[in-house]
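G., the chain you wanted modeled:
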Amino acid sequence: MSRVIHFEIHASDPIELIPFYESLFGWSFTRFLPEVEYWTITTGPDSLPGINGGLVKRKGPAPLEIQAVNATVCTVQVESVDNTLARNNELGGTVVLPRMPIPGIGWLAYIKDTDGNILGIMNIDPTARN
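Predicted structure as tokens:
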């Protein structure tokens, strides 16, 4: 069985996108090598479930303004979807899919960062229902 072990965010200007993720999720970024436009992302301590990732300069055009989900979507566990949605909006991100229940699991929403990347946010709540 194969498991996801790493993710990447592609950005038009990685340096401009870093503060969005630092402020929204508290992630930290480290330049991999000075001559390479690649940053490693630490999403939390190794003692907790989850994976770390990378931030790379996008090689093609940015996603269209209106875009359906057409790729793998990573979902980030948060304390509160509502609070994270509010902070996302303050930072200039947009809501793609408003908060909705995943019955027996939690609350899910999709957001778009300031560079057009879509990701999910979820808070675990076994009582979540329509």
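The helical segments are 14-25, 81-90.

Shout if anything looks off.
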